[in-house]
Specification:
By secondary structure, the protein is of the alpha/beta class. The chain has a single domain, classed as Trna Endonuclease, Chain: A, domain 1 (3-Layer(aba) Sandwich). It contains five helices and six strands; from the N terminus they run βαβααββαβαβ. Strands 1-2-3-4-5-6 form a six-stranded mixed sheet. A hairpin with a 2-residue loop joins β3 and β4. The longest helix has 16 residues.
Length: 145
Amino acid sequence: MDLILNSALPYTRQMSYKGLRPRDIVIWESFIKRFPDAFDFVWYDTVLGDPTRPGDDEAAMKAGGAYQVMQWRIDVIGSKGDFLYIVEIKPDALAGALGQVLAYKALLINEGRISPDVRCMVLTDSLSPITEKAAGLLGVTILVP
């Protein structure tokens, strides 16, 4: 399976994190500090999805950069032993963050890049009881590190 297009990094603090915004970095580094053994390796800013419709000129879209801009990007994919985790980092996470991580999972499975037993996780800095309950019902781990 062609899971990851970029290189794996050790799960530790880095000088920078491709694709993460400043508030995301605060949440992510809090997670690393609180859960130092959560993952063995991580991948940042993993691209997925085909943004074209039938009849679109894919070559022209790629040449002009539109294809790459329209693709989705996963904040973090982490590995721990034989398990993979899709991680969405979302300040003030609501239902959209849950849908986002589940959509990433569905696309990766559809593209044949990941096995269906991948786990989904949302990291946030504030969590309402309803979002926490919905996450549990959907099988998504949600944490405020």
